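Researcher: Good morning. I'm working through a list of sequences from a screen, and I'd like to move beyond sequence-only analysis. For each chain I'm collecting a predicted structure so we can compare shapes side by side. This is the next one on the list. No need for commentary yet; just the structure.
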Amino acid sequence: MKKVSCHCGKVKLKIKVDDLGKLQRCNCSICKKKGSIMAAVDLNNLQILEGKENLSMYQFNTKVAKHYFCKICGIYTHHQRRSNPNEFAVNVGCIDEIDPYEYFNLKVENNDGNNHVLDRKKK
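Model: Good morning. Structure tokens for this chain:
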């Protein structure tokens, strides 16, 4: 179990994971701008402990993914994934137990969100 929080501490989550598994960065239009490293978590393994009223949700394009951020400090905490709507992607930088020096040395894979199957034009 790991604790997750935004910068101001008004949003607190917990995720049930033994390890973070495969970490990713994505090059879709929103992920490119937020630049976070993400860990996938099954929907049932993320629980909002405090501050649900302080979360805002943003959707765009296909409106499948749901991006959540603290409306007080603006920090992106997690999103329900478009590539797998049965998972949340959690901002690894918001996991309280992660040492910032360790954070930048993590093995991170790239996800090609720019070429997602839902964005392909039908012929």
